[in-house]
Design a protein that fits this description.
Elements: E1 5-8, E2 15-18, E3 34-39, H1 40-44, H2 48-62, H3 64-75, H4 78-96
Antiparallel strand pairs: 1-2, 1-3
The structure holds zinc ion.
Length: about 120
């Protein structure tokens, strides 16, 4: 039996699970839905906020206008990368409880960085 696959509507963001892509038609807008490049079980393991964020990013990526508007923002957006890394580290700390940063090597790095 074929595994369920996640599909979402690029028009309204509705998502549902189908075995066959040809059956994936949005019940709200009658538009053909797009398959999500993620396994069904991986999607099910996400909580509602994570699913919402993932699908929001997909919708943004598919919009040429939004992509053009975000381009300068992306090119000057180190803060978002740093914020995401801090969030990941926070999740590690919460999930393991015993997580500690690795002690820094005393050896000088070859690129001259001291920080
Ligand atoms: Zn729709």
């Amino acid at each position: 039996m074929r595994e369920l696959a996640v599909h979402y509507c690029p028009e309204c963001g509705f998502y549902a699970f189908y075995q066959l892509s040809r059956n994936a038609v949005c019940p709200r807008c009658a538009r053909k839905m797009t398959p999500l490049d993620m396994r069904y079980q991986d999607f099910m393991d996400l909580d509602c906020a994570q699913r919402d964020e993932l699908l929001s990013r997909k919708l943004i990526e598919q919009s040429p206008l939004v992509a053009r508007l975000l381009k300068p923002h992306r090119e000057n957006n180190t803060r978002e990368i740093i914020a995401n890394l801090i969030a990941v580290i926070g999740r590690w700390k919460r999930s393991s409880g015993s997580w500690r940063p690795r002690t820094r090597s005393r050896r000088t790095r070859s690129n001259g960085c001291t920080g």
